[in-house]
Amino acid sequence: MQKRSKKILVIDDEESIHDIISLIFEEYNYAVQGISNSIDLQEKVLAYNPNLILLDIYLGETDGRLICKSLKESSQTAHIPIILLSAATLKLEQLDCEPDDFIEKPFEISELVNKVEALI
């Protein structure tokens, strides 16, 4: 079994999104871990040490843009690329948190893969 060298952290309150993204990226030799809430998030991010974070904007009671801003402002996590996901129609410049990219749900698998590959 080949070791998975690239790691994606999916932060989304929908377990089905974790499952779909895991299935997609297993084909590309990525390890994928899912988190469904923002509890102890900074510690979880540091422990997993992902190459990239896929972050839902609407994460239950928490706004993913605030999480993005917090991660980008921290010297420990600022280097990790973040792609925000949302069912809302938004433009990158409207997000007010400096993500590395944005993908609207539902997304095309090829678009997701291309954006992840470009940032890692």
From TrEMBL:
The keyword Plastid does not apply. Residues 7-120 form the Response regulatory domain. The modification 4-aspartylphosphate is found at D56. Keywords: Phosphoprotein. It comes from the Bacteria. Pfam families: Response_reg. This is Response regulator transcription factor. It comes from Pedobacter fastidiosus.
